[in-house]
Amino acid sequence: MAAIYPVILCGGSGTRLWPASRADRPKQFLKLIGDRSSFQDTILRVIDLPGADEIVVVTGQAMAEFVERQALELGVRLTVIIEPEARDSAPAIAAAAAYVQSVSPDGVMLMLAADHHIAEPEMFREAALVAIEASRTGLIVTFGVQPTSPATGFGYIKPGGTLPGGVKAVAAFVEKPDLATAKAYIEDGYYWNSGNFAFMARTLLDELAVFEPAIRDGAIGAVHDGRRDGLRLHLDSEAFGRTTKKSLDYAVMERTSRAAVAPAAFTWSDLGAWDAIWEASMRDAEGNAASGDVHLIKTRNVLARSSGPFVGAIGVEDLLIVAEPDAVLVCRRDDAQAVKTLVDVLKAGGRDIAHRHAIAFSGGVERQPVTSTSQAVVQLWRMEAGAVADLPACSIQVLDGELVGASERYPTGAREDLRSPTLVKANLATSVLVTTWS
Fold this sequence. Notes:
The chain is an alpha/beta fold. It has 11 helices and 29 strands. The chain has helices at 38-46, 64-74, 89-103, 121-135, 179-187, 201-211, 213-224, 237-240, 248-253, 274-280, 339-348; strands spanning 4-9, 55-60, 78-83, 108-113, 117-118, 140-145, 156-163, 167-174, 191-200, 227-229, 232-234, 259-264, 268-269, 289-291, 294-297, 303-306, 311-314, 319-324, 327-332, 360-362, 365-372, 376-383, 388-391, 394-400, 403-404, 409-410, 415-418, 422-426, 430-437. Helix 1 crosses helix 2, helix 3 (89-103) crosses helix 6 and helix 3 (89-103) packs across helix 7.
């Protein structure tokens, strides 16, 4: 029997979870619930799935390091497909399908989003196996989650007749409804559309040949002409650029006669906003979910988290309080969707804070601003053991650890003026103050 290929789609910026989630460090890589990211939890849900072969991740160049580092934390090897540009979900999934078919002509893809929360992984695996078996008959199977409330932030699926293998036909996909319509959908037995799928790679490519041939042909060409670099497959930019920007729902699912839905009873959330984080988090007897340096007094139903300053709250209810080193968000829980509006305002004003954290991380080096004047900018660099960095012309002070250059060593306590850019390596975890002068 052909192998199963879990494929994790790892894009998006999660602007409704600002200020923690931004384009340079989006929500799927943040440890928002527990001590693992949703991307890591997605890997763990499929790592021991019966019949599963290699795990494939589709992401952009800017996110590849996050993908590989977080997989390394779990001791998991991946194939990472690098998109040269974001062109919505259909081209990304088509590229994954073209890759899977190239290594396994009858391979089955379990197509998963990296940023979803599923509370019962065993129930997920049971539903996944049902969907996978149904997909071997040529169906494109999506997971339909039993609604727990009339949510207005999700799309819905109207189920049709029962098909062999425990799945149902899809009578219709419907967009995010208003509250009254959502209540009617629940009464009529609709499912939430989870955006996760199972299908044979060949099936998807055949349907794209009918509905969106430019996406199919561009994806196949991007894989065929792509460049392999270790675990990474860099898609050919010219071929990928010929694909049409379109979501999988619009490109295929709303047009195909092969759509089916596998009913799923697991607790699911797309973690689309801070109220969803509160809902999915462990809460105390007063309904509060707190993490980081936080203290709450006489508060109820509050999400309070900090990765920077101390946060204290007294006598408040139904709030979201999120503190990062460079930004603080406070809003009512029932107004969580409006965070995107705030981010849009920041973007319109040209504020870098909208899409980039003040503390940058790449290549094992965290760079944190300390202070700046008209004459100097001071940063604290924290380097992991083995990390290599290119220091600019600057003054350095090694606070702990040791840096090694081509001909110099800079031990703890060393102070040095570097007259030109200098490549250094941290033999052990090292902290260094870096001052650049105007």
